[in-house]
Amino acid sequence: MVATKKVGILGATGTVGQRFILLLANHPVFTIHALGASSRSAGKSYQDATKWKQNQPIPENVQNMVVQECKSTHFKECDVVFSGLDADVAGDIEMEFLKANLVVFSNAKNYRREPTVPLIVPTANASHFDLIPHQRKVFGQDKGFIITNANCSTTGLVVPLKALQDAFGPFSHIIVHTQQAISGSGYPGVPSLDILDNIVPYISGEEEKMEWETGKILGSVNSEATGFDHLENTVVSATCTRVPVIDGHLESVSLKFAQQPAPSIDDIKRVLENYTCEAQQLKCHSAPEKAILVNASPDRPQPRLDRDLQKGQAVTVGRIRECPVFDIKFTLLIHNTVLGAAGSSVLNAEIAVAKGLI
Ligand SMILES: NC(=O)C1=CN([C@@H]2O[C@H](COP(=O)(O)OP(=O)(O)OC[C@H]3O[C@@H](n4cnc5c(N)ncnc54)[C@H](OP(=O)(O)O)[C@@H]3O)[C@@H](O)[C@H]2O)C=CC1
Ligand SMILES: N[C@@H](CC(=O)OP(=O)(O)O)C(=O)O
């Protein structure tokens, strides 16, 4: 039995922050101890500060907690700090927390490209925690560290890619087209007059994130455990669009393997169906029983039907078929605010506890 850890949530009033609260409300290892948001919210009770948009009520023990400003002194008793902060402010605030020797799991993009900061999708590259001793040396910390999770669309993409890369070697080409839910743009997000009866074929910065982050996540920790060997020779091309769905990003993927001849469709299905990851071996509370769900129906996955399977922590893959241009193509679905955001951070923190880092 692991002793309970106190956790803080930065950006607790936002879309990702609300997910953190639901995921942590009855958690066996983590207890919500402190909540942080902007000075607009600080000093108010949580229920007065937030515009709650979840389909379950605010947990009773959280409703009247007082929201703090995001200063490390208010969080010094926390064993873990989760961040769902707006990227405009996450950089400075998260660094102040790290320098106060706190453990930070961030959803924001600010430190994903830092050479000493692991970018971890918990069901794909938990081995990247191996860099933490080096990161602690670089930042002069004995206890604190920072882990980022990936962009939500990238997260969905890399889970099946990791399974296939482990089995069949690297890819030469990846083309991905996303149809992303509106919850991905926070609250109030995309104006209703822009998104109802419509599709917006542009999400600022998203394609660049998918094209870059994929290579860091599918790359490896170098032999000295002092940095990451980014994937070389894999070209990723992403097109990202916003569609009128509340939760769940759908992605159409085409792949070409570096090694030819490419595996058969049956071999691809078998590998995806049998994929297991370290979070499962470590028996982490939030690890999905299956990290990849293969659906054989011709019209699946679909956001409304598949996003909540495995409590939102799995990626559903369907429509696996030959590609007349590359080798194979398929469609995947990820719950963007669970595995694509708060769920990744929570599972990453459980892995860190299981590895003895916290
Ligand atoms: N939504 C998603 O699917 C995903 C989001 N992310 C990332 O997670 C982060 C949060 O996103 P999301 O929840 O959608 O955003 P929201 O806009 O819904 O929430 C932003 C949060 O940041 C807080 N905040 C804003 N300004 C400040 C400030 N000056 N000081 C302290 N806190 C501040 C807000 O507090 P207040 O209420 O007081 O203004 C709020 O709690 C972003 O970095 C985003 O890019 C990552 C992956 C997926
Ligand atoms: N841009 C994503 C959500 C997000 O905030 O991503 P990132 O953390 O990479 O900025 C979406 O629109 O669905």
From TrEMBL:
Protein name, per record: Aspartate-semialdehyde dehydrogenase
Keywords: Amino-acid biosynthesis, Methionine biosynthesis, NADP, Oxidoreductase, Threonine biosynthesis
Taxonomic lineage from the root: Eukaryota, Fungi, Fungi incertae sedis, Mucoromycota, Mucoromycotina
Family recorded in the similarity comment: Belongs to the aspartate-semialdehyde dehydrogenase family.
Biological process, per Gene Ontology: methionine biosynthetic process; threonine biosynthetic process
Gene Ontology molecular function terms on file: aspartate-semialdehyde dehydrogenase activity; NAD binding; NADP binding; protein dimerization activity
SMART domains to which the protein is assigned, alphabetical: Semialdhyde_dh
EC number annotated for this UniProt entry: 1.2.1.11
Active site, renumbered: C152 (acyl-thioester intermediate), H249 (proton acceptor)
Enzyme class: oxidoreductase
Catalytic activity: L-aspartate 4-semialdehyde + phosphate + NADP(+) = 4-phospho-L-aspartate + NADPH + H(+)
Organism superkingdom: Eukaryota
Pfam families documented for this protein: Semialdhyde_dh, Semialdhyde_dhC
Semialdehyde dehydrogenase NAD-binding domain residues: 6-132
Biochemical pathway: Amino-acid biosynthesis; L-methionine biosynthesis via de novo pathway; L-homoserine from L-aspartate: step 2/3; Amino-acid biosynthesis; L-threonine biosynthesis; L-threonine from L-aspartate: step 2/5
Function: Catalyzes the NADPH-dependent formation of L-aspartate 4-semialdehyde (L-ASA) by the reductive dephosphorylation of 4-phospho-L-aspartate. Mediates the second step in the biosynthesis of amino acids that derive from aspartate (the aspartate family of amino acids), including methioinine and threonine, the latter of which is a precursor to isoleucine.
InterPro entries tied to this protein: ASADH-related, Asp_semi-ald_DH_pep-lack, NAD(P)-bd_dom_sf, Semialdehyde_DH_NAD-bd, Semialdhyde_DH_dimer_dom
